[in-house]
Every structure is written in structure tokens, then in C-alpha cells.
């Protein structure tokens, strides 16, 4: 729980607020391959990743299409499902063993009502997600696969070490074979 408290401390919460917020979360361990959320379920919780790597994906025509990955100090949530309480369009699965801290939606909503700075934190988190989604969409539409890979090398080099090749290829919108060719040309 200390990493969770530290995260909220680094994001401007005073010690009392850190304690109140952290006590609203419960610890979960997920093993590699286990699901945090399955497509079609309604997301009832938001998770903070203490340790581990997770990927978001949807299954189409028998293939998994990875749309996003998150690791330590990131959040796990099917955002539209959590916010609107409708079935998730993607699944979230552990790529490694992980430790997460989860908060149920009613507790999350209560923190938003009771701690003004938590509401501001939440709005900032949403704005950051919107910017990430917008940037990703823009990159897919305007950059070549090679340019997207080079951007990944510059902006998120740890993913190249941590995420399996077939998931990276899916995130970049190419086949694993095409990604191997790109990597060979850029090295």
C-alpha cells in the first residue's frame, strides 16, 4: 500500500488524504494470463498497478488485437464501461504476474464527492487519457508504421523490452512479420 500512498502523495494529496484514499483500495494479485476484466463484463472497479504489465485487447475473427498496455503506476480500467456502467468492449489481461490495488465504483464516486482534490485529480486523469487516445488516433492516421515504431522507441522504450512482439505489432497496427522487418531496417 505504500506505493499507492506515495503515488497519491506525488500527485498533491496531503498525508490525511493519502490515507483516506489508500484505505478505499484493496490489494489483489494477478498471475500471468489471468483476466482483470473480460469483454462484455461491466467494469465495477478501477485498479492501480503496483507491479506488473497488462494489456487491453479485443478478439476479432479469432485474433487478439492489442489496443493498449499499462504497467507500474498506471491504472487499469475499461473507461467507457466504468463511467457508463455498460459492457466492456475489450478485455484486460496480465502479461506478467502483478499486484494491483482496486477501488470499487461506489467508493471511487464517494471519494470524488468528499475530497475536492480527488475530483480535480480525476478530471486531470481523464484529460490525460483523452490526450493519449487523440494522439494514438492521430498517429495511426498520419504516421507510417516505421514512424510509429520510431516514436515508440523514443517515447516508450521500456515497452520494447517488456511487451511481446505480437502485442507491439498489434498496437502499431501491423503484423508481427512487418514489425520484424521494420526492426531490422531501423537497427
Automatic annotation (TrEMBL):
Domain Cyclic nucleotide-binding as annotated: residue spans: 11-111
In this entry, which stretches build a coiled coil? none
Lineage, top-rank taxon, reads: Bacteria
Sorted alphabetically, which Gene3D superfamilies does this protein's record hold? Jelly Rolls (2.60.120.10)
Q: Which InterPro entries match?
A: cNMP-bd_dom (IPR000595), cNMP-bd_dom_sf (IPR018490), RmlC-like_jellyroll (IPR014710)
Name of the protein: Transcriptional regulator, Crp/Fnr family
Q: Which organism is it from?
A: Spirosoma linguale (strain ATCC 33905 / DSM 74 / LMG 10896 / Claus 1)
Traced from the root, the source organism's taxonomic lineage reads:
Bacteria, Pseudomonadati, Bacteroidota, Cytophagia, Cytophagales
